[in-house]
Amino acid sequence: MSAVDLLFAQLRKSGRKALMPFVTAGDPDLAFTAELLREVVARGAALCEVGVPYSDPIADGPVIQESYTRALGRKVTSTDVLRCLSELAPQLGAPLVTMISYAIVFRRGLEHFVAEAKQAGVAGLIVPDLPVEESGPLAAVCRRNDVSLTHLITPTTGWERARRIADASTGFIYYVSVTGITGERTELPPELAGNVARLREHTPLPVCIGFGISRPEHVRRLAPVADGLIVGSAIVRRMAEAASGNRAEVLRQIGQFVAELVAALGSD
Prior knowledge:
Number of helices: 12
Strand content: 5-15%
Number of strands: 9
């Protein structure tokens, strides 16, 4: 079992749900990334998703794309990210999963990358540009290393294929709330809760919802049907202010935002 499996088993036993903040690694630098991950975990995040910068991200909206561009402009590499996480993970107290392009994993070699990620304290991989039909080799390597491999299911995924994706996933299933790219939304689709409830009937895996979640009211609405909620653009937008502003204040503001979302998870 990976650390992600163990976490969700503990959460289910206690009747709790997970808030999973997304953080772009290296924006504005890796020192800030480490500070931010410590802050969000201290404010109640159950696990954290770390985006590894890539020049051609899949399904990311302008906020996250621009954060990747800033990090790449500072020459941040996957090696740098794993080195940062290896120093941070033992003191964090929450599992880390990485959002990473398959091109990076393939270029490094599946066995080499997964072993290196595991050594760095990474508990799971989310690889959005890897079709489930082609995921077998990486899935096998991840299984041998007790690293979760999470796949995405979207609103346009047919139910037969959704079940195949669920069967191939480990750790949790990432359910994309809206058709399109990442980004903050004012409203979420009215059919979202029903779609997730239906998916949960076909898989024992935890289901986490991402894309568009940016307000405590979103969290309150979705917490009854989800095992976890992923918040990205709303955090990354605030991170952008750290490059030119007061870093301590940016950390405080993001920490307060995360605390509000965690509180909403437990609201009736």
